[in-house]
Description:
This is asparagine synthase (glutamine-hydrolyzing). InterPro entries: Asn_synth_AEB, Asn_synthase, ASN_synthetase/amidase, AsnB_N, Asparagine_synth, GATase_2_dom, Ntn_hydrolases_N, Rossmann-like_a/b/a_fold. One of its GO terms (cellular component) is cytosol. This protein is an alpha+beta fold and about 600 residues long. Helix content is about 40%, strand content about 15%. The protein folds into four domains: about 1-225, Glutamine Phosphoribosylpyrophosphate, subunit 1, domain 1 (4-Layer Sandwich), CATH 3.60.20; about 235-380 and about 450-530, Rossmann fold, CATH 3.40.50; about 385-435, no CATH class; about 535-595, no CATH class. It has a six-stranded antiparallel beta sheet. A six-stranded antiparallel beta sheet has the order 4-5-6-7-11-12, covered by helices on one side. Strand 6 (about 125-130) and strand 7 (about 135-140) form a beta hairpin. The two termini are about 30 Å apart. About 55% of the residues are buried.
Amino acid sequence: MCGLSGEIRFDGGRPDLEAVRRMNDRLAPRGPDGEGLWSRGPVALGHRRLKIIDLSERGAQPMGDRDGADATVTGVFNGCLYNYRELRGELRRLGHRFVSTSDTEVLIKAYLQWGTACVDRFHGMFAFALRDHRDGRLVLGRDRLGVKPLYLSAAPGRLRFASSLPALLAAGGVDTAVDPVALHQYLTWHATVAAPRTILRGVTKLPPATVRVVEPDGTHRDHRYWQPSYTRRPEHRGMTTDEWRDAVLEALRVAVRRRMVADVPVGVLLSGGLDSSLIVALLAEEGQRDLATFSVGFESGGGEEGDEFRYSRLMAEQYGTGHHELMVPSTEVSGALDAAVAAMSEPMVSHDVIAFHLLSRQVAEHVKVVQSGQGADEVFAGYHWYPKLAVPERERAAEAYAQAYFDRTHADLARMVQPGMLPGADVSGRFVHEHMAAPGAETALDAALRLDTHVMLVDDPVKRVDNMTMDWGLEARVPFLDHELVELAAACPPELKLAHGGKGVLKEAGRKLLPAEVVDRPKGYFPVPAIKHMAGPVLERVRDALHAPEARGRGIFREEYVARLLAAPDEHRTRRGANGLWQVALLELWLQKHGIG
Length: 597
């Protein structure tokens, strides 16, 4: 787990090494254990290292398949190939020699052996950049579920890339104007901005499950190498409910086992819910010793419980983990807000972003790797709105999705946003309609889960976990996003996922390992009262941001709309119940924190 950066020139010039060094410096929290900078011809690569596999200097990056100018391929890599040992054995039998035990060297040799098709063999989370000295191409790749990020900024004659958007800003030369289409998505889709867009016009991101080959002249081609069909294949059609339960449990067991691969201890972010509790139980079943678990909670407020310690303690006691709890007083939320916003590659409005940032700081004092239950709700239909999406008419999928999930309509946005910042059409609704209409996905719910798993999940929950953990040099692994488990879940009949109030097939699997009190408990969230109800120092911070000269000069929102929000900060709710002031303010807080005037 690391941070990567680089630049390639197409105009015959040399890359800007100082710009790459600035990107590398901005990525330091992602890789506090080492740094490297390499340049040859029109390409420069930077790397910040977090030592997880092969702790020796032989695992340092940038790395070539041979030393110095003799290298055929030089690359940088962020993530982990969980099956690197098996791949190394296969590559050795094919004649390749290794000088390290790192998965980075396995990636490079796999590319030499199989070309861009090497990604089909990888089990893991990854983003990489490889310079092929034989043909002058730059090869960029991202894992199937987009767990690892890769941002890009193009300009005449060059392309830059990095593991975070702020790193590209540090390099300079970025068009920082707000993209109206991205703004429409941000305000409509609970802050999700789908790849390849970001909130800034001058920055894009490589979509998940994509390999991009960049030619020496700057042209490129993309290959999307993976997408489950969300249909029932013949081998699945005769399966009973019990057989589905057992298949899901076995696939999750394999996913958890894969993510134990490390040369350092692996802990668990334990909320006490079904998903993280299953991970703890399966790690214990695999014989994991001295397992460290970590939970976070907030003060209760607005009639809501702020922590789930009762359940996490139950699991910790049952499996004898070394358990750590972090209780965050409301008075600390405002102080933690700026640091969390600084860690965001893109604006993120969900309250648990602050929880993850605070928890990651504590966890990083004990371990470098954790497993997390992120993704289970999207993959197995755990949220309360999914039954509303199971409409019988497949052609109504997009309409049902917008009604259940969108924060606002296009007409609502016209009353909020200045005319020059609003696209003339409902671009968010059109995006969802086109995605829902794509081939595959037998039912309306299948189509909704496909959209959530491969778009919303990538650019909201998964991004939050990566950004907040990596800001403290902590690697988070997500077994529920193992691609084979996702393929199985995609084929699972919708009615089995919707059973028992959501995640039915996963709950049935949980009954074989967990107390009924954990399996059947109500779904928990991370309410942060100071944000949800816009009170105290957080509200003052919000007022300052929206009254700042930068906000007035930017002119994204209508002044009368902002005034109404500030006059009644806890009254304006989106259709999904989110605080409207928070969504508006968070965008402005992010832009100001990252120096965008």
